[in-house]
Amino acid sequence: MQHGGPWPATTNDAGTSVGTAAIGRFQRGVSYQNMPQHLLPMELRDDNPWGVPQQVAPAGESTSWGDRSA
Hints:
Strand content: under 5%
Number of domains: 1
Distance between the termini: 49 Å
Order of helices and strands: H
Largest sheet: none
Helix content: 10-25%
Oligomer: single chain
Number of helices: 1
Low-confidence stretches: none
Shape: flat
């Protein structure tokens, strides 16, 4: 079976069977929930220094999102 990585893909420590770019994809952040303000990108901070249009839902408003009975 060929996985596209170095041969043999299962015993070679020099690379991965999906490529070295996959390491960055698995390590990237995918959510900013509960992240400290000073670590957020400028356009996502509460003080909004760039003046990006934002809509912030009040706490608890999203509890029924995805609920088909609502």
